[in-house]
Amino acid sequence: MNFSNVLIKWYLQNKRDLPWRKTTNPYHIWLSEIMLQQTRVAQGTPYFFAFTKEFPTVYDLANASEEQVLKLWQGLGYYSRARNLHKTAQYVANELNGVFPPSYKELLKLKGVGEYTAAAIASFSYNETVPVVDGNVFRVLSRYFDIESDIASPATKKEFTELAYELMPKDNPAIFNQAIMEFGALQCVPKSPDCTVCDFNDSCAALQKKKVAVLPVKSKKVKVTNRFFNYLIVEDALGNTILQKRTAKGIWHNLYEFPLWETDKIVDFDVVSKAVTDTVFSSYTIIGIEDYAESTVIHKLSHQHLHIQFWRVRIEGLIENGLKASELNVFPFPIVIHNFLEKQEIIC
């Protein structure tokens, strides 16, 4: 059985109709690949349409403000991708005259572009013979060939890249890369794949050896940290409030939020009331503190679980340069704050 021929035939019969597959424009392919890092296709597709409508060329994206980019990215997560996207657009527009580098090695020099993304752009836009290796590719190849190498190891990445290169038809690398990723996304899925309908069920080593559920092998475990956020929504006599920008490195860099008090555990009203009165807003006269009903959420990130509570803090007088509720729509927020504002009908 010719692995590549069977795979490509399956792809041509089963592939999804995705907008970035209808072009070789490196700008569009780069956008889609950055958006689909750590993101499902169904979630990323509306953002792709939004970005290509708002920023039809790399020059349009380069000329936008960072806040515009972050606002449009809001809800997609991993916001460093959006910041790198913006910086790379500026570099391509201003330093490369709007032309993306035409080779894998040159693409690797762009900010936010790693080996996988560079390989995808190089093969899809320029038909360069370079394999893409992501989680889908690890899974398909490890199962089909019964490879037990630990995919958390850099040496394994090299092993799979060399194998994919051997399998790849050198006259059409793009379709092979698309096919193997699509096969991993739709057929050879992580849990409980339907091997009875798989085109490789007569030749897949993992299926013959009953090892489908244990491949690929990945030893590294992600350590999750719990953090406890208390957002203090200040409200003055006119209903105006305060926002602050997260300028420190880490999650949600350069996004906006309400004043934050981080604690080492979930706290109750008495603890919040004392802290707000004595320290956090000691310069104001507090006339009321209450929690927002049913607003406590656990927001799960890849390495952190954020336990978030929202508190309404009413004060006497007016906040200097306070923001009206109607002005909040333009700010890029972490999606958990955006959802809170929508739920409370503070923004529409």
The CATH architecture of the largest domain can be given as Orthogonal Bundle
Structural class: alpha+beta
Distance between the termini: 57 Å
- By DSSP (H or I, 4+ residues per run), the number of helices equals 14
Taken in chain order, the helices and strands follow as HHHHHHHHHHHHEEEEHEEEH
Computed CA radius of gyration, to the nearest angstrom: 24 Å
Number of strands: 7
User: Regarding CATH, which class of the largest domain?
Assistant: Mainly Alpha
Strand composition percent: 5-15%
CATH topology of the largest domain: Endonuclease III, domain 1
| Unreliable stretches | none
Could you name the CATH homologous superfamily of the largest domain? Hypothetical protein, domain 2
Q: Helicity, in percent?
A: 40-55%
Mean pLDDT: 92
Global morphology: elongated
Taking the sheet with the most strands, its summary is: 5 strands, mixed
Verbal overview:
- Helix 1 crosses helix 11 and helix 2 (26-35) runs antiparallel to helix 8 (115-126).
- The mean pLDDT is 92.
- A hairpin with a 3-residue loop joins strand 6 and strand 7 (304-315).
- The chain has 348 residues and is an alpha+beta fold.
- It contains 14 helices and seven strands.
- The strands form two sheets. Strands 1, 4, 5, 6 and 7 form a five-stranded mixed sheet that branches.
- It folds into two domains: 3-214, Hypothetical protein, domain 2 (Endonuclease III, domain 1), CATH 1.10.340; 225-343, Nucleoside Triphosphate Pyrophosphohydrolase (Alpha-Beta Complex), CATH 3.90.79.
- It has helices spanning 3-14, 26-35, 41-54, 58-63, 66-73, 80-95, 104-107, 115-126, 135-145, 154-167, 173-186, 205-208, 269-280, 335-343; strands at residues 225-235, 244-245, 256-257, 260-263, 286-291, 297-300, 304-315.
- Keywords: 4Fe-4S, DNA damage, DNA repair, Glycosidase, Hydrolase, Iron, Iron-sulfur, Metal-binding.
- Pfam families: HHH, HhH-GPD, NUDIX_4.
- Belongs to the Nth/MutY family.
- It catalyses: Hydrolyzes free adenine bases from 7,8-dihydro-8-oxoguanine:adenine mismatched double-stranded DNA, leaving an apurinic site.
- Residues 35-186 form the HhH-GPD domain.
